[in-house]
Amino acid sequence: MTDRGLFEPDVLLTEQFSAARRRRATISSEKRLMLAVLENALDYYQKYILANDRAGRALFEEAAQWIACTSNEDLFSFENISETLDINPDYLRRGLAVWHKRLLEGHRTVEMPAAESPQPVQVAS
Fold it and tell me: Global pTM?
């Protein structure tokens, strides 16, 4: 088996997002908005995970907290958006946690104090 390095694809996750994007043209405006909110949060989570500036850290923390929240009381909560788009929220969180761990292992050669090291999304057991 070939080692694909840090960015090894997750087939199920890719299929879920591909299916959501294919339906984007035929889904309601509300679902398109929900997909945009989810994509934005995932983008901020991945883009700012190693940010050193205050603004970048704030964007990462906000995205991480939103993704980790298991409440479904808010219409635009991570839980509701994921379920509305037929994406298993716990599966997505586990995938992000694995990606997060691999990223940090890949950057282990760069010295980062433990207090500044970003925490992965918490996954309910």
Answer: 0.65
